[in-house]
Amino acid sequence: MDFKLSDDNIRLQKLFRDFVKNEIEPEADRIDKEEAFPSAIIKKAAELGFMGTPFPEKYGGAGLTETAYCLLNEEVAYSSATVGTVIGAHIGIASNSIFFGGNEEQKIKYLTELASGRKLGAFALTEPTAGSDAAGIRTKAARRDGGFVINGSKIWITNGAVADIIVVYADLAKSDKGRGGITAFIVESSFPGFSVGSIEKHMGIRGSSTAELVFEDMKVPEENMLGVEGGGFSVAMKALDYGRLGLGAGCVGMSRRCLDMSVDFARERVQFGKPILRQQAIQFKLAEMATQIEAARLMVYQCAWMADEGMKITKQSAMVKLFCSQVANRCAYEAVQIHGGMGYMTDFPVERFYRDTRVTEIYEGTSEIQKMVIAMQLERERRR
Ligand code: COS
């Protein structure tokens, strides 16, 4: 058993840290305050090969591991959860849908464009009737003229208004209900019949784009069906397994940042004649934060190792997502508490982290859904 990062991963971690320090940190507050999509940062990340970190080089990726992808997410979210969210939606769930569900032609045509960062991806599953109950989608696909036509809409799609390539999950069955008909399609934003509807405003991750997508008789070529007819639900679930792992790594980065800000502040802030870092009330908070972050980090990298070994990560990644998002929320809460009045002011990043961490217990499956996934896996393990 070896808990050290490999020399290659230590080098990558340094590379990611330099990128974050030079390109993201100077912009992170502005991105939040101006609700600005971080296009220039994403372009730079693409030039450096980061937009396809875990994918093979033959598909335009960097040919690295899930561990490396987690290191990237951890460092990026240390500075900006917005940028972490854009990359997470692009790699974790959109590109992974094609990587896991696509055939060779689809990977060459679409994954290469995504992994190289020339195009941006989105994952379109959620609908008004299908949030936690992912199988409740109403968007319909039908066979027509040797291809498909899709009608319906999606909501709350990350990268939705800016993505070029979108993996859309639609119901190809005749029935009105059931995951049996759910089929995945690769859609280009230039397809006639595709349009962007309302753009959402949100509490945190304010520079990320969250949009409604509308499909009106949108024609999709036969060859753009991803995987098999009715196989879409499994593709979405597998992509989410990997998305949740990356998201957990981002939560570790956010938690670390909250701790670092808190220690720095507590060293400087003097009350009752000494730095508050010397007050037991504050020491206890910092110690709890540090201990939880240590545990969260170990969970992330154990799960990343499992993924790199080709093991099934459904249960483990749900645990990672559940625990790491809770830790991030607790760390942000305590960071604000330690900063006191200053933590509540918008002049300091701690307030941004408080808002940004909140969504991590909601998107890519709420904490309650992660518990369901874990419990269902426990049941399956006992049945075997
Ligand atoms: N990988 C591959 N396939 C999977 C899978 C996984 N991780 N999990 C489930 N599947 C497959 C199963 O094998 C099963 O296939 P068969 O019917 O052929 O046996 C099928 O999918 C259904 O599985 P299950 O019975 O577990 O599905 P449920 O309908 O009970 O799923 C949950 C319920 C909660 C797991 C699902 O609806 C879910 O994850 N919801 C949350 C969605 C979400 O995260 N939304 C956030 C927005 S997207 S950013």
Summarize the structure.
The chain is of the alpha+beta class and 384 residues long. It has helices at 7-33, 39-47, 66-79, 81-101, 104-115, 232-268, 280-308, 314-339, 341-344, 349-358, 367-383, and strands spanning 121-124, 140-144, 147-158, 165-171, 182-188, 194-199, 210-220, 225-226, 270-271, 274-275.
Descriptive notes:
The protein is α+β, with helices and mostly antiparallel strands. It has three domains: 7-115, Butyryl-Coa Dehydrogenase, subunit A, domain 1, CATH 1.10.540.10; 121-229, Butyryl-CoA Dehydrogenase, subunit A, domain 2, CATH 2.40.110; 234-383, Butyryl-CoA Dehydrogenase, subunit A, domain 3, CATH 1.20.140.10. Helix content is 54%, strand content 15%. It has eleven helices and ten strands. It has helices at 7-33, 39-47, 66-79, 81-101, 104-115, 232-268, 280-308, 314-339, 341-344, 349-358, 367-383; strands spanning 121-124, 140-144, 147-158, 165-171, 182-188, 194-199, 210-220, 225-226, 270-271, 274-275. The strands form three sheets. It has a four-stranded mixed sheet with strand order 1-4-5-8. Strands 2-3-7-6 form a four-stranded antiparallel sheet, covered by helices on one side. Strands 9-10 form a two-stranded antiparallel sheet. A hairpin with a 2-residue loop joins β9 (270-271) and β10 (274-275). α4 (81-101) packs antiparallel against α5 (104-115). The radius of gyration is 21 Å and the shape is globular. The two termini are 28 Å apart. The relative contact order is 0.11. The model has no long low-confidence stretch (mean pLDDT 97). Coenzyme a persulfide binds next to α6 and α11.
